[in-house]
Amino acid sequence: MKKVSIYRPTTVNEAIQILSQHGSSASVYAGGTDLLVRLKNRLEQAPSYLVDIKRIDHLRYINEDAQGGVEIGAATKLAELADSRLLQEKYPMFVEAIGKISSPELRNASTLGGDLLQEVWCQYLRGGYSCWRNGGYLCYGAIGDNSYYHSAMGGRLCYAVYPGDAATALIPFDARAKLATPQGEKELSIEQMVPGDMLVDGKIQSHVVRYNEILTSVVIPPPKPGVRASFEKLRPRGVWDFAMASLGISLQLRDKTIEDSRVVFGGISGKPYREKTVEAFLKGKTLNAELGEQAVSVALADAAPLKYNATKIDMAKGLLASGLARLNT
Amino acid sequence: MQTIEALLLEPVGCLAEFPSPPFHEIAVRLFGRKGKAIPSASVTYWRLLNLIERADRPFDAGKKSIVETLEVEAVDAASLYEDVVPALAELKSMGIRLFMASSLSRRAAAMFIERNSLGEFLSGVCTRDDAGGVKSAPLLNALGSASLPPEKTMFLTDTVEGIKVARNIGVHPILMMNDPDEAQRLAMHNPSGGVISMHEMPDFIRLLAAQNQRG
After folding, report:
1. CB contact, 8 Å: A136 with chain B?
2. Interface mutation target, options A134, A157, A198, chain B, most CBs of B under 10 Å
3. pLDDT tens for the 215 residues of chain B, in order
4. Helix, strand or coil for residue B35?
5. Whole-number Å distance between alpha carbons of A220 and A70
6. Exposure check for chain B: N or C terminus, fewer CB within 10 A?
7. pLDDT above 70 covers what percent of chain A?
8. Which CATH number is A227-327's, of 3.30.70.870, 3.30.450.20, 3.30.390.50, 3.40.50.2300?
């Protein structure tokens, strides 16, 4: 394992100071289920300084806010989200999605913040190849085996898919993220926080959180009346794997008429892929048995599969049909 | 890698899809090569350049005319990759100097630039006629004429020969990964980097600049 030094700050401000001091060679350490694996694999890009935020108060909670929404501390364990009665009552689709992340053992350690900001799970990066995210200047996934973990919607230097499920399930609720920064608190939509491969602080990463910023919480707005939501995920095996394709979908219905929708695919792109063409298509339509097939016909027209992953697009379209069918029952 | 100031561009395989038969035909008619043309124009072209480089004397007028006619035929049938113009425009706006450094003849290169309206993006053009040779000669000519530091210059290529030529003169060879299987083989020849498409070059150069700025 790569040698590291660990800081254990007790306040967010202290953590930010330490992160600012060490620049990109430091990283926030919470659940560690992604970070420690990268250290064990001795990746060039893995940090040398860990800032363990587990001793900081007020980062691990699930609270209902005054408006009827829910605020979740970024260090809250995925298992705690899956067991939350409050979340189950208000956002059962989100709880279903969390239950499909990884395995029960890992959900006991993984945090919501970690799932949202985790590193991509490309086998070339994890195998220590000198790729864009690991000190090199070439994407081996784009030219190698890209069956599972690479984008079918194009890329920006790196072609790995964004691996998290939580974002795919949160965007349909218009959830927002709060960040602590040296300049104070900053708020972004989840969609803005994980826009896909970005050049941030001289690195390629899936999110826009800078080296000296900390994701502190996620706020889900109150559930709207008439909203139905569904999450489904296809993966190479039943547990402990990332999505080959997933879909988080929400429909705002008046009787059977769709007034608004959010359609977000996971596992097919470098970001949670919001399919606005389908959202526009669905607006004003009647939710019925035929709608899925019609929606599929307009979905993912911008697909640009790599050599071995065109099947992801078929999977995603299948999930769109089945998601609409689930919401029609 | 240092912050990049200039790009050297060889049209064949990097800017446009060329047909391979005209280059094969030159090899057949001037060097007695046999067999059918292979599909890859880049490989055919660089093999031809090897033959030209090894030739013991320059082409006479008759042979030169044959070569130019067939090269012009290749240029005529070449189709520019759709991402090239936007990428060149963006690179130019970033202050990156763009040079065509090609082993094609002056006539063929000029025709390629004119047909594809690339002149406005280029800071200079060096051909085998300008450089008095092929392969590394146009590259060295471009470096010398514009005083480009090799360590701050990239050469885009999609062949092993191209990688070697760039390495030998101290320029960063950047692999154009047009075909995934071929790119896997070429990646083993240690290019400085690789891109799927020209549209990635601005981000590549921006990333290097950011990394160097952060030290």
Report:
1. yes
2. A157
3. 999 999 999 999 899 999 999 999 999 999 999 888 898 999 999 999 999 999 888 889 999 999 999 999 999 999 999 999 999 999 999 999 999 999 999 999 999 999 999 999 999 999 999 999 999 999 999 999 999 999 999 999 999 999 999 999 999 999 999 899 999 999 999 999 999 999 999 999 999 999 998 76
4. coil
5. 5
6. C
7. 100
8. 3.30.390.50
**Mean of the pLDDT values across residues A293-305?**
97
> What residue spans define the domains of chain A?
227-327
Interface touch A202/B177, C-beta < 8 Å: no
Residues on chain B bordering chain A, Cβ-to-Cβ distance under 8 angstroms = 1, 174-175, 177, 180-181, 183-184, 187, 191-196, 200, 203-204, 206-207, 210-211, 213-214
Q: What is the residue extent of each domain of chain B?
A: 6-17+81-214, 21-77
DSSP per-residue codes, A113-164: HHHHHPPP--HHHHTT---GGGT-S--HHHHS--TTTB-SB--BSB-BPP--
Q: Cβ–Cβ of A137/B180 closer than 8 Å?
A: no
pLDDT score for B144: 97
Average the pLDDT over A96-106 and give the result: 95
Counting DSSP H helices and E strands in chain B, the numbers are 11, 8
Query: Which residue, chain included where needed, has tokens 């060329």?
Result: B18
Residue A290: what pLDDT? 96
Residue A240 · residue A103 · CB < 8 Å:
yes
How confident is residue A239, by pLDDT bands cut at 50, 70 and 90?
A: confident
Give the span between the Cα atoms of B210 and A183, in whole angstroms.
22
Host H or E run for residue B145: helix B136-145
> Judged by CB atoms within 8 Å, which residues 142-201 of A form the interface with B?
142-144, 155-157, 159, 199, 201
Q: What DSSP element (H or E) covers B164?
A: helix B160-168
Reduce the secondary structure of A272-316 to three states and give it as a string.
CEECHHHHHHHCCCECCCCHHHHHHHHCCCCCECCCCCHHHHHHH
pLDDT band of residue A165 (cuts 50, 70, 90) is: very high
A24 chain-B contacts, CB cut-off 8 A: 214
CA B174 to chain centre: 11
Phi-psi region for residue B135, left (φ > 0), alpha (ψ -120 to 50) or beta? left
Q: Show the tokens assigned to A136.
A: 């090199």
**Residue pairs spanning A and B at CB distance below 8 A:** 55
Residue type present at position B62? G
**Class at the top of the CATH hierarchy for domain B6-17+81-214:** alpha beta
Burial (Cβ within 10 Å: 0-12, 13-18, ≥19) of residue B62: exposed
Rounded distance, CA A242 to CA A235, Å?
A: 6
- Return the CA Rg of chain A: 19
pLDDT tens digits along A31-55: 999 999 999 988 888 999 999 999 9
